[in-house]
Amino acid sequence: MPGFLRPLFRLVPDDTRIQFMRGRIAGLVVSAILSIGSVILAFHPGLEQGIDFRGGIIMEARTPGPADLGGLRGAVSGLNLGDVGIQEFGDASTVLIRLPVQGEEAATQQAVSRVRGALEAAAPGTRILRTEAVGNRVSDELFTGGLIALGISLGAMLIYIWFRFEWQFAVGAIVTLILDTTKVVGFLAVTRIEFNLTTIAAILTIIGFSANDKVVVYDRMRENLRKFKTMPLRELIDRSINETLNRTLGTSMTLFLSALPLALFGGDALAGFAWVMLFGIVVSASSSIFIAAPILLFLGENRLRRGTEAAARPAAPQPARAGGTVAERRG
């Protein structure tokens, strides 16, 4: 290849020979601990569910000057609408008001009007920028629909990989995807990022990216299984990971750098989605090496190489016949 067509910068040298499978036990143990901890955190203290899944009313308002959160909270709390939350949203003059579900649509409209009046009285000139209201029944349907979407996504990935690869590859990929998803849920529980339809979309995106990365690594492993018929599976997996390491890191860094500006400058509407994406990219890239590959090694060590030991073993010398060969008899 001409020099001007060669890449100016490579993340990993072409002759890299890192023995990743030496740390296979540690990788699986750490991943299991993190996933179990994430599941526990998902139930206690639980996820910070957004209005999509919890139901209620959200109002975004802007005051003429810096908002007096104490005065606004006192004005709205005096309406006896339930547990009211008011917080700064984006800048000092923008506030976010959260109200619990008020019942039917008429009660919701009445509560919104009362809050608008209370805000205007406490801070004249206050403008309502947006209002969102979700009832209990709708929030339950959205929550169920989001979980169904996650389940269908994982099932579709399992079917696709099962038909494309041997079953050992499919099991390794789907177990890794489940572990990746649980870690993302744990990240939501720790950071208190709202769990809503936007974060569901981020998780689905991460599942797709993670599955694509594992398919690329698995493809190289399958090619090397056909190319190096006598190479031990552990050595072959290390070789395949090293050969695809530039592609894995390059794709992950590109996507990471694309999502980073959204997390830093995208505002509160996009920050949750972007931070979940950033965490998921790191988890997906590492799990392809330290989770999916060790699982494949444990499942396929005595199956994917079946019959190659006999082929690799040198043929035993044949015993000489009683009469010797024709040449020997003539001699």
TrEMBL record:
Could you tell me the superkingdom of the organism this chain comes from? Answer: Bacteria
- One short Pfam family name for this protein? SecD_SecF_C
Q: How is it placed in the membrane, per its record?
A: Multi-pass membrane protein
* Record keyword Protein transport present: yes
Q: Which GO terms describe its cellular component?
A: plasma membrane
* GO molecular function annotation: protein-transporting ATPase activity
A Gene Ontology annotation in the biological process aspect, one of them, is: protein transport by the Sec complex
Low complexity compositional bias: what residue ranges? Answer: 310-322
Residue stretches making up the Protein export membrane protein SecD/SecF C-terminal domain? 119-301
Keywords, ordered alphabetically: Cell membrane, Membrane, Protein transport, Translocation, Transmembrane, Transmembrane helix, Transport
* Chief place where the protein resides: membrane
Transmembrane regions listed in the UniProt entry: 25-44, 142-162, 169-189, 195-217, 249-267, 273-299
Is NADP a UniProt keyword of this protein? no
| Gene3D superfamilies for the chain | Multidrug efflux transporter AcrB transmembrane domain
- Where is it localised? Cell membrane
- In this chain, the stretch annotated as Disordered covers 309-331
**Function comment:** Part of the Sec protein translocase complex. Interacts with the SecYEG preprotein conducting channel. SecDF uses the proton motive force (PMF) to complete protein translocation after the ATP-dependent function of SecA.
Member of which family? Answer: Belongs to the SecD/SecF family. SecF subfamily.
Q: Which NCBIfam families match?
A: 2A0604s01, transloc_SecF
Q: How does it assemble?
A: Forms a complex with SecD. Part of the essential Sec protein translocation apparatus which comprises SecA, SecYEG and auxiliary proteins SecDF-YajC and YidC.
This protein is called what? Answer: Protein-export membrane protein SecF
Which organism is this protein's natural source?
Muricoccus pecuniae
What's the source species' lineage?
Answer: Bacteria, Pseudomonadati, Pseudomonadota, Alphaproteobacteria, Acetobacterales
